[in-house]
Amino acid sequence: MKILLSIKPKYIKQILKGCKKYEFRKEIFKERYSNEIFVYSSSPIKKIIGKFKIGKIIEDSPEELWRQLKDYSGLSKEDFFQYFKEKQIGFAIEIVDFVLFDEPIDPKKLDPDFVPPQSYLYIKDIFFNEFIKKGGNLFDKTVQIEL
Fold first, then answer.
1. Residue 116 above 60 pLDDT?
2. Per-domain residue ranges for the chain?
3. CA distances from 96 to 82, 99, 114, 116, 145 (A)
4. Fold exhibited by the domain 2-55+95-133
5. H-helix or E-strand containing 126?
6. Which of 28, 40, 52, 112 has the most C-beta neighbours closer than 10 Å?
7. What is the DSSP string of 8-57?
8. Which of 31, 95, 86, 85 lies closest to 58, judged by CA?
9. 128 φ/ψ angles, rounded to the nearest 5 degrees
């Protein structure tokens, strides 16, 4: 089983620039045996645009996460603490080996009932196997998309 995270395009830009090396979450997925995350770029892109391997997952107070990871957050201090407002614990997922797909995947073409996750979603391997069967090539890093 794989994990799908929704990330705003402005933060995907920070990942691509190498400024954002951690993805921050208020809640973490319970199934931690997966080491791969697929990235759904929210509006206006609305497609699965890439994937990355999970490095370490850090659980701590927002204050401590900021102290340790601010230089790798890709966020302003204001945005960071606004996101974690009224939370005692937060999570930082290390982004390792980000791959930008040559063809973003339109999940609605694979599953007309697809609803983008607010936080995360478990996805079955068959979801992506169907894309590959249709001739999709997921792993060419050379083509840039407009974010």
1. yes
2. 2-55+95-133
3. 25, 9, 27, 23, 20
4. 2.30.130
5. helix 125-133
6. 40
7. -HHHHHHHHHT-B-EEEESS--S-TT--EEEEEETTTT-EEEEEEEEEEE
8. 95
9. -85, -30
Residue 147 tokens read as: 């974010």
pLDDT in tens, 78-96: 999 999 999 999 999 999 9
Distance of CA 46 to the CA centre of its chain: 13
pTM: 0.83
Q: What is the CA radius of gyration of the chain?
A: 15
- 48, 40 in Cβ contact below 8 A? yes
Q: What is the pLDDT of residue 128?
A: 58
pLDDT digits (tens, 9 = 90+) for 26-50: 999 876 667 889 999 999 999 999 9
**Is pLDDT of 119 > 90?**
no
Q: Count the helices and strands in the chain (H runs, E runs).
A: 5, 6
